[in-house]
LSME1 protein
Amino acid sequence: MERPSLEINLPDTHEEGKLYVVDSLNNLNKLNVCPAGSQHALDEEENTGDTGENRAETNTRNQCLFFVTFILTLIVSLALVSFVIFLIIQTRNKMDQITSRLISEKKTIEELKKMNNMILKHLNQSGIKT
């Protein structure tokens, strides 16, 4: 298959017609030269005019979005760390309560053992057998 030639003999037309034909040839040349994805980018560059300012705006917008996301992430992380610290403190308080209760119950059990031994000694001395 042969590719059609891009050279076209233009008949003499009015100025508006010439501009239209040249514009059509430029569009046709873009379609033949550029891939499909880059054609859209070329059209946007033509429509936007000064792309340097737009790129700077986009970069600034991306940086602002990055910093806002970063700050939100830090706030959420701080909240999670605070919650974990709160849970650790609560757990330590509960463990202290349980430990103190166990110590007091251990003392009570030791006192009961002493009383039991005293009763057994008294019974053995009085001569009553169990």
Observations:
- The mean pLDDT is 79.
- DSSP finds three helices and no strands in the chain.
- The CA atoms of residues 27 and 125 lie 122 Å apart.
